[in-house]
Amino acid sequence: MSYEVIIFGIKLSLSPVAFTIPLGSHHWDVYWYGIIIATGFLLALLFGIKNAARFGISTDRMLDVVLVTTPVAILCARAYYVIFDGEKLESIGEFFGFGSSSGFAGLAIYGGVIGAFFTGFLMCKIRKVKVLDMFDIASLGFLIGQGIGRWGNFVNQEAFGGLTGSSWWGMQSEKTIAEVGEGMVHPCFLYESIWCLAGFFLLNALSKKRRFKGETVLTYCVWYGFGRGFIELLRTDSLMLGSLRVSCLLSFAICIAAAIVLVIMHSRLRETVGAGNYESVFAENEAESIEENTITEESDHEQVD
Question: Tell me, what DSSP letter sits at residue 163?
């Protein structure tokens, strides 16, 4: 099944199914949504592997944390969506997409992020990985995954907003016409994709001069929360809690809370090392991280031997 989409005056023919694998008398459809999400995850993982040492993390132990955290985060993303979408499930199998033509559909990024942080925290404690270092590098990975993953929403024609009032700015498809009406609608998936990818390049550059552990993840919370909050106001498919847009409320709450903590931490640093003189603090943290990473890798090699 294919459909026509017009985005910024460009006509495209899209299909949610990338290819089909024959299985005897049946077939298995492989969806672009899953491929795009998997691509975002893989690129985020490769970034983490390449930069783990810079954050003072053992690559082996980081992978242990990721392997356990990822499936839990996916389940949490599904649970978050199911809780707030307002539709009752007929069976537990429907939660996992069994018997549904759309498969494991209906995931909410915030559910995945929340699940990843809680599970990641526990796994860091179990595998003896510095939690804040792990959160800092993970937040950069989130921006990669979220920036790329939003294009899965484009293929599925999801995450769009109301009418733009323009003859060319926005996008239009059969689905947007059916749900919003004739005319171009806000491509909210694109807004968030650009916001996340821009945030990745900015935060990655800032992370190379990280002043204290946890600074990057706090900045991520401010950046993503601020952008997502305003983008969510444009969307027509927001998850609701009564009359409140859940993700909008959560976004601004996280943004404000993280901003307050950042201000407090920077204020304390100024009191400790003098106004604007952060280099010594970063150098100390970097040396400590390198030493911890060396000890961890030696420990891992001893276990293998």
Answer: B
